[in-house]
């Protein structure tokens, strides 16, 4: 056992090494101004490792030695995001961006204003959330589905551009930072060279390499990967205040030791946005990392609060995508696939070609109108691209290369799956199978949708299992899922006793749902999540919605004549209503919602919830408020009706006090809910 003097000396030296290494890290990875050779850094790191090995009491969670990784995990734990990590809407042309810009001005009621926008490259990486408490990194998580991600703290701690402790002072007691993990082209190339030298298969592109590195159960593997982090915003904040605009906020994050993108800029008006796009597009190929576009964000945070969100994206930001990469290839064949609504989609089978970082062998042709517009024949040489760098599609035909044996694409006269009759709607582009539930393809697609995470969330009911259930005749309609028995499941491929029990438990758990989820799960044409929520809030119960007239349906936000017609067809169909009755008989249930139409007590009011509530989550509080007709916002403004503040409320509470917005605590909030029949 070391003497007190030796221990004291070791502690002082370890503290000195930690401070020195983190300073060098900051200079190298955040400022891009390395001050010592790599060999000097490595010597200091090894000395600290030796001291911590000799004196275990010196181990600290923010030690630079965490960069080398920890013991492997058995699995990643789940993390629920206090504020959802939303996606961004895309604009693929100047016209689409201009439409976004005009929508923003119209919503703000300032049609002639020249707004400030914070602009930054859209890195082609993986979104992550970093949670700092008292300046120390305590958790890192993937985006996941936006609501729930995976705990990857040990892996993120190995990334040297991630500060394990924030620099300086003045940061909130709790600060959630959001950013993108990515690889530089140089690091990616070196990683693949090393893999080739070991006789291993390399990664296809830097994004796949970054994603695979972050999901290693052994963080020591992650530590060997050349990952970078660049921050682009914040999520949950409490116990402190932040600047009132995005540009200043990002500078503050940089002061605290977090890397931000040096290509970012603050511009004014639509012309400033266009100029920034042209400048960055011209330099895209010269950047040391992959980008697939530009992100524009309204700079003023108060204006963002007024603009709000749609179902999965903010109204105050958009991703302006660069033109997709294009390549020549040959159309080998066209197959027709059937979706859950019976829509028959032509799919191009291509001679494999490398486009936008991936090998493409299939591309969508969308519908028959698109086939006719392109004038494409089987055997043609075509230009294929990845629209938005995501979905491969055919752009045009190289007519001069058409071979003599090229053949026309012939639409099917019967469903390619079930043989049922098909029809093309008058004036429409979509060919549709009329087989309904007789068609296995429609049944499988409907089952996959019903079981999906944002619908009934039946864990373990994947595509291959759905296919087996349908092909073996065990499931025809979604209600049949709740009649499955263990003996039925045990006959399926790769389905052991434990797997069968897990699926049955997931089915039982899914029976308790919400009306919006249930409506979305039913797969009514044109009814997405946002529309399902609007319908549930407007009518309160399934029965009231099912009996609503077309005129009454048209009065609901997000419902136009086409959606209203689809809804009435669905509710007037005896077969679909029999399925709904069977689902409810099987035990599928939800709490009725107090309809917001006509008599909602909080209609027209905007509420904000902040801090930690003890009796419910903020998401549950928001749902209760929406059930009473309120709009729930993410930030406080002069239009906020009431702020619900729990322990740990920070900048929102301070802003509410400054604006003299009424503030209530959790007890008063619960009393208000009880008064209106909404129980916690």
Explain what you see.
This protein is α+β, with helices and mostly antiparallel strands and 680 residues long. It folds into six domains: 4-68, Helix Hairpins (Orthogonal Bundle), CATH 1.10.287.610; 95-321, 2-Layer Sandwich (D-amino Acid Aminotransferase, Chain A, domain 1); 326-424, OB fold (Dihydrolipoamide Acetyltransferase, E2P) (Beta Barrel), CATH 2.40.50; 436-510, DNA polymerase, domain 1 (Orthogonal Bundle), CATH 1.10.150; 515-585, 5' to 3' exonuclease, C-terminal subdomain (DNA polymerase, domain 1, Orthogonal Bundle), CATH 1.10.150.20; 606-675, BRCT domain (Rossmann fold, 3-Layer(aba) Sandwich), CATH 3.40.50. The strands form five sheets. Strands 12, 13, 14, 15, 16, 17 and 18 form a seven-stranded antiparallel β-sheet that branches. Strands 2-11-10-3-9 form a five-stranded mixed β-sheet. Strands 5-4-7-8 form a four-stranded antiparallel β-sheet. Helix 1 runs antiparallel to helix 2 (38-54) and helix 16 (515-521) packs across helix 17 (529-539). The longest helix is centred in the first third of the chain and has 27 residues, at 4-30. The mean pLDDT is 86.
Instruction: Note the overall shape.
Output: globular
Strand percentage, roughly? 15-25%
Q: Could you state the oligomeric state of the chains shown?
A: single chain
CATH C-level category of the largest domain = Alpha Beta
CATH fold assignment of the largest domain: D-amino Acid Aminotransferase, Chain A, domain 1
Write down the overall mean pLDDT: 86
Sketch the major β-sheet.
7 strands, antiparallel
Number of helices: 24
Catalytic activity: NAD(+) + (deoxyribonucleotide)n-3'-hydroxyl + 5'-phospho-(deoxyribonucleotide)m = (deoxyribonucleotide)n+m + AMP + beta-nicotinamide D-nucleotide
Family: Belongs to the NAD-dependent DNA ligase family. LigA subfamily.
Protein name: DNA ligase
EC number: 6.5.1.2
